[in-house]
Protein: LysR substrate-binding domain-containing protein
Amino acid sequence: MSKKLPPLSSLRVFEAAARHCSFTRASNELGMTQAAVSYQIKILEERVGAPLFLRRPRQVSLTETGERLAPAVSEAFEILREAFSIAEDSTQGMLSITTVSTFAVCFLAERIGKFQIKYEDLAVRLDTASYIIDFAREEFDLAIRAGKGDWPGLEKHLLIPAEFSPMLSPELADSVGGIKQPSDLFKLPFIDPGDPWWKIWFDAMETPSDELNCRPRNRMGTQILEAKAAEAGQGVAVLTPVFYREALNSGRLIQPFERVCCDDFGYWLVYPKARRNHPKIRKFRDWVLEEVKEHYAREEVAKQKRRERGDVIL
Structure:
């Protein structure tokens, strides 16, 4: 069997077509005709000795052979791109980060300055987006995503589990004589009664939650907006307490029950595997993981103080 590599042009076309599952979109990306794309794929299939795509009207999909080949080819091109990126002069480098808004506002915003002081030669571009970016098509170095961590082809580091518990303003709690048991929460408006976190939490507290189905389906889209509404006394929100330590310590919000729950979701630092040794990614990764560690240490101290003040029901 020949050990010579197939033509790089054919591999490049295959990588784009496999990523898009479309010869048309691959041709648009590469600035080629669709016929040229088909020809390059045919060259590669002849070299492999097996079809790489199943052709259907207006649609193509990878064969089993193509499925095995695509990840390796994609990673190889990513390694090549990364090698050329590292070779560039990085003294005036830019670190581009995309993140969900809640993590940006509640964690990164008050800390990113420390990173920039530590690494003065590295500028930071921070972008918030609710959609999942494609590293192969968008110019971001790394991302902070909310989810289960099931993103193939990426290095993943869990930063903060999405723990949750009811939170509200002390004035709202006082308006019904205080919150002494979970059922007392039903005396108040819920900011997002359709949030699945509510049922999980009430089930853990062995409290029926059927009444939630009768509440208006208000939604604000992001947790940070729900927290602001809760601070303003608009209702009870189910939030991640570790994000709102300052509001809890100052008394703008209270967490009436210490019980927190967690589903499979969390906030993750992710980046392509081929970039794991890039200096600027390594710098940010090590820094943010240390910041998370210190944050949780301070949170434990603050939590103990709230227990001593009787702010939570154990």
Summary: The beta strands are 53-56, 59-62, 93-99, 122-128, 142-147, 154-167, 237-239, 261-272. The chain has three domains: 8-87, 93-160+265-300, 163-262+302-309. The radius of gyration is 25 Å. The mean pLDDT is 89.
